[in-house]
Amino acid sequence: MRKILIVEDDPILRDSYHLILSSQPYVCHVAENGKVALDMIKKTNYDLVLLDIMMPVMNGVELLENLDNLDEMKSKIVIMSNLSSGKEIERTQELGIQQNVVKSDTSPSQLISLVRLQLISR
Q1: CA atoms within 13 A of residue 45's CA, in its CB half-sphere
Q2: In whole angstroms, what is the distance from residue 95 CA to residue 105 CA?
Q3: Distance CA 122, CA 112 (A)
Q4: What number does CATH give the domain 2-120?
Q5: Residues 84-116: pLDDT tens digits?
């Protein structure tokens, strides 16, 4: 079964994403910030990481910068943020992340479709 890590500091969004994706044939884990996510990624191979950018403790960009080798990482990473541009998004692209989704523009059915597409294209 495919494993997904949802990295989101907003508890309502985090729980919503978890509920939506757990209704599909996925094992879903959650992390409330980049530091927690980094520890989880080091222990578990996730097929997909849905990563928020703006979070306390360690933000999404800092998490990406702390991953040893993004190119060799087995997880596919999708940025899910309400940022559509700016230095943070540019930095994620410099680090090799190609997929950026604006959370406020994404319905539950679009989230499910996005995850399916990402997992198929692995």
Answers
A1: 5
A2: 24
A3: 16
A4: 3.40.50.2300
A5: 668 888 898 888 888 889 999 999 999 999 999
Cα distance between residue 71 and residue 106, in whole Å:
27
Give me 5's structure tokens. 């890590």
Can you name the residues that pair with 27 across neighbouring β-strands? 3
Instruction: Please state the domain extents for the chain.
Output: 2-120
Distance CA 37, CA 73 (A): 14
**36/8 Cα distance (integer angstroms):** 11
| Residue range 24-51, pLDDT digits in tens | 999 999 999 999 999 999 899 999 999 9
User: Which residues are bridge partners to 49 per DSSP?
Assistant: 5, 77
